[in-house]
Amino acid sequence: MNALRNKVQLIGNLGNDPEIINLESGKMLAKFSIATNENYKNAQGEKVTDTQWHNIVAWGSLATLAEKYLQKGKEIAIEGKLTTRSWEDKEGVKRYTTEVVCNELLMLGK
Q: What are residue 56's DSSP bridge partners?
């Protein structure tokens, strides 16, 4: 069951072109967001679409792939793990963000 711990699989559309960061260490990082949609009918029988946004980070060869092939609107499937980071903003307030660290990426559609 260890293989199932902290595992995330998502299929969605890119909300923006990947942001590519080349670190001083020589490593490459790609940051982007994807939207996943869930459709359902509410109590009144109306169709409702619930959109959730997910922040994704990809390192190394996956970052290179993202830089070369991914662009806003493209449908992709990703697999990875959830991580939470914290930092202090300019006012000294502690902030948190949760991201999916991608370890597999599959381009879907055309």
A: 32, 100
- Residues 90 and 81: their CA atoms lie apart, in Å, by 29
What confidence tier does 4 reach under pLDDT thresholds 50, 70, 90?
Answer: confident
Give Cα 100 to chain centroid, integer Å.
Answer: 6
Tokens describing residue 1: 């069951």
- Domains, the chain, with CATH or none: 8-107 (2.40.50.140)
pLDDT in tens, 39-50: 999 999 999 999
pTM of the model: 0.86
One-letter identity of residue 37 = N
- Our measurement of the distance from residue 11's CA atom to the centroid of its chain's CA atoms, rounded to an integer in Å, reads 10
